[in-house]
Amino acid sequence: MIRFKTWTARSIGRLSRASGRGGGTTLPGRVLLKLDGDAITKLGSRLSAGTTLISATNGKTTTASMLATILAAEGRHPVHNRAGSNMTWGVATALAEQKGDEGLFEVDEAWLPEVAERLQPKTILLGNLFRDQLDRYGETEALADAWAALAATLAGQTSFVLNADDPLVADIGNSSGPGTIYFGIDDESQALPELQHAHDAKLCRNCGHELTYDRAFVGHLGHYHCDSCGMERPRPDLSASSITLKGMSGLTASIDSSEGRAELELPLPGLYNLYNALGAIATATRLGVPVDRAVSALAGMKAVFGRVERITIGEVDLSILLIKNPAGANEVIRTLALEPAPIDLWIALNDRIADGRDVSWIWDADFEVLSERVGRITCTGTRASEMALRLKYAGWPVDRTAVIDSPEAALDQAIAGAEGQLFALPTYTALLDLRNLLAQRGDSGRYWAS
Amino acid sequence: MKLRLLSLYPDQMNIYADRGNILFLQHRCEWRGIDFEVTRCGPGEEFDPGEHDLLYMGGGQDRDQKAVARDLIETKQQSMREAKEAGAAILAVCGGYQLLGQSYELEGETIEGLGLVDLKTVREPGPRLIGPVAIEVDLLGHPRTLAGFENHGGRTRLGNCTPLGKVIHGFGNNGEDGFEGVKEDNLIGTYLHGPLLPKNAWLADYLIATGLEHHHGERPLLEPLDDRLEDAAHRAALTAASRG
């Protein structure tokens, strides 16, 4: 029976894509789960070589794509929800539509326990927890509790790969048992001058005392310890040092592990992408790939749509950088600060369910950093005016800021006014709108994978 | 003129970007030539109620909020009472609002509040009350709207005190009686969380005027600012609330 149901779901996906209505990345899975609530368990049990799950607030899609790139270089092509649809129906869609004996899925933070229970993964990579869509996910501490409970139930059968630099994630190592490995950054020169405002891990998970940070690299990710109970950041099994950031064009770093040192050349910018790369490489070692081969494979890494994708429209180079929460936005801001001024921007703030309906978070992101460097700014989306207001109070020039409700009209105006280079900063649903808009105009290919 | 703001627990009670409110007040004072002073007051620290005109407390994660509840009683209860009685403006949102009352319930435990106003926050079966919200309030002698976002598990029941306003869209204090927040003397408590002032510039100016009156003894007429973006953001927040 599951074969017939899977066939039905696949056919619906093909029809949906052929009709040009989009949404082919979730509909088959929704149909399949309606036909058979156990479809994920049944289809997942066919993945005889094992399944890897990846979760984090920021970087899920990019990290999964990095791991897929590493595995592809080894001739391995896992079943993978590469379009970034990461709740049960996205996982079910990938299972219905792709063949393979290995699974690689990015999973929404809140859905991770349910998906893990059904797929019984061999490996789970946990990248970070930042405040994000509090209306949907609740507090970061509550998510960390749920992840720790999951780790306790899977201990012994699932290997965990954890970010040593995130105290909320590293703490899960106390529940996940032996076989857990850690990754982190060991380069003091990359530390932030001070902890950022949107700071999500202030208290020791062990004893509740305030944590002491020796340095932070991205948001609250860094080197920390507890003066009260002696809890410390775990020593990473895989770490990065000698880091050189090269603006939008990427970065280089030395990667150390028990296998020695390898030199990473990553064509994606920012320390946040270095964390994604470290997570992918560490996980690859769990999947039998030597570190040096994983590191070389990443040199050929391409951007995932909307995660630092670059497109040429006429005379203008358009770079798209997703923003969706303070920590992620701050990293985008930090990367943009390395670009030559004036920086022209198209910023799209939506308040749909997938964006988080609460737009409060924009007041936690440090837009002030760019106030002296911005050129023309075009704000659009369902909450364009609040975005423009935020920028006004960050000291950005009001006389060079336009609020245009229609994303398409806003894009046209932004392109017309841009000096060679335009940065688009959309929230999640605004990114989907932009993707469709560019596809309709023939400016980019269709990105969802079939 | 000078407005002296006391930011209570800025490192603990900031979960929904509460610093947006302080940034907003700061710029609106500075653009009018009003000196603006921020004093941060964290755990274990006391403050002199005579030195501050506007007190702000935001929302926090459960664990932070519990620690703050204890600290408020240990180090700040008397000063908070004196500031309120002397007519200082107080704005407490979300978790900060809950802590002003007699008590609030968290994970089956009843935690003692500041007891500054006669209200209690309890847990009842049912989901968290989450969504965009709009209320009608009368602080200026005529009705005005406040728009924002609420996200709270607790249900707040008022005793002998008056609500801030009536719910137009959303849940308010408990999702049942149609009222939102509390208003007593110059104290305002509300579930409209995080950066509610940027969406409601008139309330920011009301607080600035009230704080200045407390400091200088006379309510000033504030110079109008170019509020086209502020008004548009208010309308967009109202629209979001009306969509539900």
What is the CA-atom radius of gyration of chain A, in angstroms? 21 Å
CATH superfamily heading of chain B: Class I glutamine amidotransferase (GATase) domain
Which two chains have the most extensive interface, and how many residues on each? A-B, 36 and 35 residues
Count of DSSP-assigned helices of chain B: 6
The first-to-last residue Cα distance of chain A is 23 Å
Q: Can you walk me through this structure?
A:
The complex is a heterodimer of chains A (450) and B (244). Chain A is 36% helix and 21% strand. Chain A has two domains: 249 residues, UDP-N-acetylmuramoyl-L-alanine:D-glutamate ligase (3-Layer(aba) Sandwich); 134 residues, Mur ligase, C-terminal domain (Protein-Tyrosine Phosphatase, Chain A), CATH 3.90.190.20. In chain A, α4 crosses α11, α4 packs across α12 and α11 crosses α12. The two termini of chain A are 23 Å apart. The C terminus of chain A is likely disordered. Chain A is α/β, with parallel strands linked by helices and 450 residues long. In chain A, strands 2-3-1-4-5-6-9-10-11 form a nine-stranded mixed beta sheet, with helices on both faces. A six-stranded mixed beta sheet of chain A has the order 12-13-17-14-15-16, with helices on both faces. A two-stranded antiparallel ribbon of chain A has the order 7-8. Chain B is of the alpha/beta class. Chain B has one domain: Class I glutamine amidotransferase (GATase) domain (Rossmann fold, 3-Layer(aba) Sandwich). Chain B is built from six helices and 14 strands. In chain B, the strands form three sheets. In chain B, strands 2-1-3-4-14-13 form a six-stranded mixed beta sheet. In chain B, α2 links the parallel β3 and β4. The longest helix of chain B is centred in the first third of the chain and has 24 residues. Chain B is globular. The mean pLDDT of chain B is 96. The chains are: A alpha/beta (450), B alpha/beta (244). Chains A and B meet through α8 and α14 of A and α1, α2, β8 and α6 of B.
